[in-house]
Amino acid sequence: MPGLTSDQATRRVAVWFEAGLDASALLFFPLLVLVPRSIAPLVSAAGLCAAGLLLSARGFRPQPALVRTVMVFACLLAWGMVSALWSEDPWRSLVLSARLAGMFAAGLALIAAADRIAAPRRLMRCVLGGLTLGIAMAATELGSHGVLGALVTERPYQAARLNQASVSFAILLPPVCAFLACRGYAAFALVIATATVATIYALAGTSAKAAAAVGLALGGLLYLGPTRAARAAAVISLVLVITAPMSVARLERLSGLVETADQIKLSAGHRLLIWSFVGSRIAERPLVGWGLDSSRAIPGGKDPIRPGEDWLPLHPHNAALQLWLELGAPGAVLFALLVAHAWCRLAAVSWPRLFAAAAGASLTIALMASFTTYGIWQEWWLGTLWFTLFVILVMGHIAQQRLGRAKTRGPACAR
Fold first, then answer.
1. How many CB atoms neighbour CB 405 within 10 A?
2. Is residue 223 within 8 Å of residue 181, measured between CB atoms?
3. Among candidates 340, 383, 409, which has minimal Cα distance to 68?
4. Positive or negative, the Cα torsion across 372, 374, 376, 382?
5. DSSP three-state, residue 309
6. 2, exposed or middle or buried, with CB in 10 Å at 0-12, 13-18, 19+?
7. Cα–Cα distance for residue pair 339/92, rounded to 1 Å
8. What torsion, rounded to 10 degrees, do the Cα atoms 260, 210, 238, 164 define?
């Protein structure tokens, strides 16, 4: 740039990259309400901005924890590519490997850039503005039966179309409210919590309601004993993922459970039957699996169970079973390590206790949604998880700085 020194030009470029992250934060929730699939390109663009911010920062050195995370994701991606050799749909496995490489790179860039944001409070104002707008849009959609959605799609309105937004509201609700409380805006946090909870329970998605309830309960345990509870959660997560084919896949065998689940919600009973079918297919190839993203091509998956229900319509609706089914034991172990690593990092952070507990509640909600609802390779879902983690890390960085300045005053959120 003419007339600018190298440092000035670098700072100016960094400002524009950060503005891109601010815009992504502002658009995140409104797009989840209107066009959930657009989250993948939004997060990809945000990842490019984060990468540009890192490249413009001098002296950047990745933390050891980030390096370990990158290595695990690299191993998972490499194993997914190798699985194309025996996959039921080799081309699909290779294509998804390439797409996942881009999504993982974008997500990891966001994580690495979380503590490099020059104006984190501005980014948080964008997040809060987007959340407020998203809640208002979701309420409008619900009350008008899709008047906003009709502007972007010709599909008839269905209440389930807002399920993605509902789950995302639930994931970010605890850390956002804890962050506001730690910043001294407890009244505003209460308003946001009331509006968000009311929206979640007004929408059709039952997974978000159940996940929010369990997440908040675990958040209470994390507040009482943050380190022990997080480490216990890491061990439990490892066990649940590794034993999923012997435990979750056999729930259907419990007498009367499918019928009870049908009475609660028809799709719940169907899900138990899907998991049972997936368990039997895992037993046929437990070591190497059926190939990355081969769930749609599993033999017998399209056979009917009941009217309008197949044994495996798209994916197992359970991340642990999907990793076992498609990538076998190596994929399941790598996934278990990622989940356990997240809990161990939470046990080691120096965030205020209230915010750390809220982050644990958020992680619980995300895991419950992954283990009961969505396909783990759905790009909008991966984008949502990466971006929410980025926002939580930015909030944690701000809260940690405030804690360091306020320890002598003993604020409520520091206790």
1. 9
2. no
3. 340
4. negative
5. strand
6. exposed
7. 26
8. 110
Tell me how far apart the alpha carbons of residues 324 and 247 are, in angstroms, rounded to a whole number.
13
Query: What's the CA gap between 96 and 176, in Å, rounded?
Result: 33
Please compute the mean of the pLDDT values over residues 75-99 and round it to a whole number: 94
- Coil, helix or strand at residue 1: coil
Residue 223's alpha-carbon distances to 54, 200, 216, 311, 395, in angstroms, are 33, 24, 10, 41, 17
| Residue 97: pLDDT band with limits 50, 70, 90 | very high
Helix (H), strand (E), coil (C) string for 187-240 = HHHHHHHHHHHHHHHHCCCHHHHHHHHHHHHHHHHHHHCHHHHHHHHHHHHHHH
8 Å CB contact between 24 and 43? yes
pLDDT at 4 > cutoff 70: no
The burial class, CB within 10 Å (0-12 / 13-18 / 19+), for 25 is buried
pLDDT of residue 406: 56
Split at pLDDT 50, 70, 90, the class of 407 is low
Q: Do 375 and 314 form a contact (C-beta atoms < 8 A)?
A: yes
On the question of pLDDT at 229 being above 60, the answer is yes
- pLDDT for 405 beyond 70: no
Both tokens assigned to 383: 């984008």
Name the strand (E) or helix (H) holding 305.
strand 304-306
| pLDDT value at residue 408 | 47
Angle at 197 between CA 195 and CA 203, to 5 degrees: 100
How far is residue 157's CA from residue 204's CA, in Å, rounded to a whole number? 13
Q: What value does the mean pLDDT of the chain take?
A: 88
